[in-house]
Design a protein that fits this description.
single chain, mainly beta, 9-stranded antiparallel β-sheet, 9 strands, 15% helix
Length: 194
């Protein structure tokens, strides 16, 4: 980065720009500090077509997936505080490998697909938490209910894997009367193109 700044300053000076009548407060050192803010580490590019979200409904010993994903991940591992994660998934794509159960989940009593067709997540903060581990703190919206959740992601050169736990009853989806029986473990799989 220092070499890049030196080259830019040399070009700047050789073009005669340094002799232009800039205001007194602007000088070459100020310009260099602005260039130092540029982060030249390439952001990760995620393969959207191969990305997956899966879940385990613990009390029912039921697994499933949700798709119809539309998301944006703006993530540089060396600069997590400026990262953002956000996106939606379509309720109608809930798949637990049981046609009748999936149909019931669309009803007003549960996810109410007709009125609330999407689940939404928007990050508020990303924090590095040890080597190649990141906590993504954000708001999850199911139906009209917003709750803060923390997704823990681990990163290697081929994928970004995430996991979190929620209780569906916290979002107005009462499969069971007892909160603990509505526990849902969620997993995120984002393969990296580069």
């Amino acid at each position: 980065m220092k070499i890049l700044i030196s080259i830019l300053l040399a070009v700047f000076i050789s073009q005669g720009f340094a002799q232009t009548n800039f205001p007194n407060e602007i000088n070459a050192s100020n310009i260099a500090s602005e260039y130092a803010l540029i982060n030249d580490y390439q952001k990760l590019i995620v393969d959207k077509e191969k990305s997956k979200i899966s879940f385990d409904f613990i009390s029912e010993e039921t697994s499933g997936t949700i798709s119809g994903l539309d998301f944006k991940i703006d993530f540089n591992p060396t600069d997590p505080e400026n990262a953002s994660f956000g996106g939606t998934a379509l309720i109608k794509t809930l798949d637990t490998d049981n046609f009748l159960r999936d149909g019931h989940l669309m009803w007003e009593k549960f996810f109410y697909k007709k009125k609330y067709p999407k689940i939404k997540f928007e990050s508020k903060q990303v924090v590095s938490f040890g080597t190649n581990t990141y906590k993504v703190i954000g708001m999850l919206t199911i139906k009209e209910t917003k709750k803060e959740v923390i997704i823990t992601f681990s990163l290697d050169d081929k994928k970004l894997l995430g996991k979190t736990t929620i209780y569906t009853s916290d979002f107005g989806v009462n499969i069971h009367d007892e909160r603990e029986k509505n526990k849902l473990d969620i997993r995120f799989y984002f393969p990296i193109i580069q």
